[in-house]
Batch of 4 targets.
Target 1
Amino acid sequence: MQHDEVIWQVIRHNHCSYMAKIETGKFCRNLYNVTGICNRSSCPLANSRYATIRDHDGVFYLYMKSIERAHKPNELWERVKLPRNYEKALEIIDKHLMYWPKFLVHKTKQRLTKMIQMRIRMRKLALKTREKIMTAPRKQGKRESRREEKAETAAVLDKTIEKELLQRLKGGVYNDICNYPMDKYIELLDKEPERETETELYEEEEEPEFVEAGDDLDEEDDMEDFGGRVDYNDEEIVEAGDHKRKRKESRLALRKLEKYEPVVKSKKPRVLVEVDREDADEQQKAVF
């Protein structure tokens, strides 16, 4: 048989797992406590006849306990769903707690009012846009700052080294050294397109050939003898084509080699050659 006074004496003076003692007073952590204060009239364990309000995801229920169901722990509490309308919910509480103590009826209505107000404030706060405070990891921030400092110092050092080397190259310190890195040499070539075009034009110029004056006159005499018609042998034509092809291949190979050389060749001096003919007073001039 359940005896409320004996239960309260044990809980109050010995030990209760739901009791929370702080400076302002003693509170109860039991979910069925109607006031949240640890006293004789509000304790759900020391009262065989008890009522309270609980919230389940925005839906309020009226919980009632009676001494007739004390021997059935699984059916100890009777639950009644309350409507969303505040006035109708109060009517249902009055209907089910008609002959209960007035203190318990008043505290139940007061708990319902506080819980409805709390739900209204929660909805308003959910609709407002608030700033979300995020914690930044301290170690990661320090690591990134150190990496940025190292990258900045490395970039400044590379730029200073490059400037110093270019100044030395322009000053003529490395005249005798020809093993420059190819990537830097290509960058310099890209920066100076005019210089490259001049060298290409100079390379495309054909080299002049020297021909004796007597041979030309004999060939002209032979042509006059045969009536202006000269027949060449097929072997001579093939040899001339092979000679031209070899000259073209050698010229292309020289161009490829000169592209990889860092120092651009200086232009050759021009030489003026005069060729006198025996039959005519005219003079031929060849510029090299």
Target 2
Amino acid sequence: MDSFSRYLPREVVKSVLNSKQSARLGGEMRELVMLFTDIRNFTTYSESGDATMVLDHLNTYMTALTSRIMQTSGTIDKYIGDSVMAFWGAPYPVDQPASKSCTAALAVQEETSRLNLEWEKAGIDLQFFTRVGVNIGSVIVGNVGSEERFNYTVIGDPVNLASRLEGTNKLYGTGILVSQEIVDAVNNEDSHHDFCFRLMDRVKVKGKNLSTDIYELVGFRSHFHPLELEDLATANAIMATSLDGGVNVALEQLLALPTDKPNTRFLLELRTMLTQRQAAIQTA
């Protein structure tokens, strides 16, 4: 069991052993949460460093991320180079999967920071920055491949969107991006949850005549000052105005806010974003 679980997700091994049947090709539709990670500029680092050292650092990093994901009942689907793909809700159901995935995403960032600090203290010139994308939706989960060899994995548009969100972090300089569906699912699981989501933009789902609002998961609410949370709510409302009614209207709302208190970074960064978008529209 222990040896097999090092090659396959432990949950999948348990499921196969408990079923007392041979694994076979096929799958089923389920609503799952998918998470993708990636290391910024890892290719540059891997091409310039000693191969043995690169592998050692990568394995240390992957071990840390895997542990934190599994602590939240996540199933590791696969490792793709320097990326991790995981999901919640299969092969066994998971309570509050969206919330658990958000906890895992923040834990991934926490582990990355911890490792960066350890490497710095050890005199190792290495700093990783992890990008994360999270989405939820109905997907096919099961054994995919050939009769000779197959993988337990998930496929479907929601999976592709989770991967796309991970890559979209590059455009906004963010660390964790989640879909509107994740935000809704977290709210449905617990209306008093402890997560802070910042509305960033609206993106079209590739190959579909649909769009989704995307949010940055910025941390736990309990880690922020009440004034910051108040400004975050205001920033989200104004960004929603920008997406529905235009940048100019949103900037007017922003400039009309009371000036009797200092703005937190959420409103300051919102002003920068909206000003840049207004300039881009005027240039176009």
Target 3
Amino acid sequence: MQTDEKQSTRLSTARSRELGEELRRVRHRAGMSSGLVTEALGWSLGKLSKLETGTRGTSPWEIGTLLGRCGADKATRERIMAIANEPDTGSFLRRHATAADDLLAVALHEGVARAIATYEPITVPSLAQTEDYARALTGDHDLAGARVARQENLNRADGPDTVVYVHEIALRLVVGDVGVMRDQVLHLTALCGRPRYGPRVIPMTAAAHAALRHPATVLTFNAPFKPLVYTETDAATVFHDDPTTVTVYQAKMRRLHRLALDAERSRDLLARWAEVYDRETR
């Protein structure tokens, strides 16, 4: 059997950090201190700390023991044990309860990212949607609120440098009504004035390219964390931190950057669309 020392030193992965955060939340919900848990299990404080931060592994049996000691319910145990038993291949899938907004892996990694680049083909990306736009798009009041709450991380003084690629198709496509669109485009226009968070518009005149077909978000972190990509489908979100796969999406974002207008011209185009919708609401 491996000793703590042999298991303790490793680079964390997106999956191991998600698992660690799940375990930390279980312990906190149980109202149990680190000292109480480690004493009960015969672990060192360092072992538990590294497990909860994703920088060490342990056996599924020990994770099950930890969950039992913390009194986790059946659904929580099954969800966490499924993660614990997954092979760490550099890619993993998480099914939605409603959308990607409710996934721990999304919230956890957006919260510690140094930079974010995101794109959705025919709608305004989730990280720049207003609550009214999100509600009209999804038909879900709670989801719309969660989506806006997700954006609070981007507004922190130490928040990530964020680029939101918006295709002009998304500005033409009326979601909700013209009033919703006016407010959404005004919101995007206002974001252009922020130093670390702004949209770049891909105009209708841009050349067609395969990079425009599918959504993606690329997260970059401070060392030693590797970059992470996630792509959302209707039913699940797929995460990649395998370097070869990540390179494909980094190239996609570079292509989108070349197709997009610069910051000043993006702001001008957004302002023109805001005027269009403002006239239609009068």
Target 4
Amino acid sequence: MEFRVLGPISAMDDGIEYLPTAPKQRHLLALLLLHANLPVSTEICSQELWENDPPPSALPTLQTYILQIRRSLARSPSVRSLKSARQKLVTGSRSYRIVTEPEALDLTRFNRLLQEGRVAQRNGDDRAVSRTFRAALSLWRGEALADVTPGPHLRERVNSLAETRLGMMEQCFEAELRLGLHHHLLSELGALSARHPLNENLTAQYMLALYRSSRQVEALEAFHRLRRILDEELGIEPCLRVRLLHEAILTGDPRLDTDLVEGLTPGRERTVAVPVSRPSG
């Protein structure tokens, strides 16, 4: 059975979904999957499902939800029985734990590829960085748990995953810009910088890709758009690195056409923190 949380929640076996139908049961399964192979206390489960207003029957209701999840899993060919489902979804001491194989959860595969990509970064292997991070990003099918309305614990984890995904994209783009793939990145960077208008790093990457694609005017327009938004929203100027990149584009600095652009291209000098929004509906 394969579980997926990097998009709508899924519990699939042989091409067929075996999710419980009730929203609260899906919600509980999502919480357990984001802590796969780790015990999640009944207190955390209750807080996630009902926040500060649990019903008097919270514990027996949780037990009922767990039973319904097990029944859904038991219908799948790889689980087959309620007895096997109890080994897949384990009751502990005031806790529950879902057991998944290393490659059976997309989040586990994503984290493995993230670590492999970081090793490639330390080794200076941009091709491996691009290949590994692209494989990790391909696991996403939209926002994490897009069809689950999160409570306090899931909300924190989902927001953290969104930040990790965006950071991976930026690092992937950096490697691919060094590989000379600026033409291929224009559409992706344009869309992402528009979706995250306060992200200076994405805009700077887009500016560099535009400049290297002989679109200097559009690169300058991207800078002025960023400066206007930062001023209107936060009352600040773009960070020094982005301003230096802007000046280099204005003067046609030859370093912009090479890998030797240290100090002119975006780094992590400043990160503007903004809430990660979930799609409505």
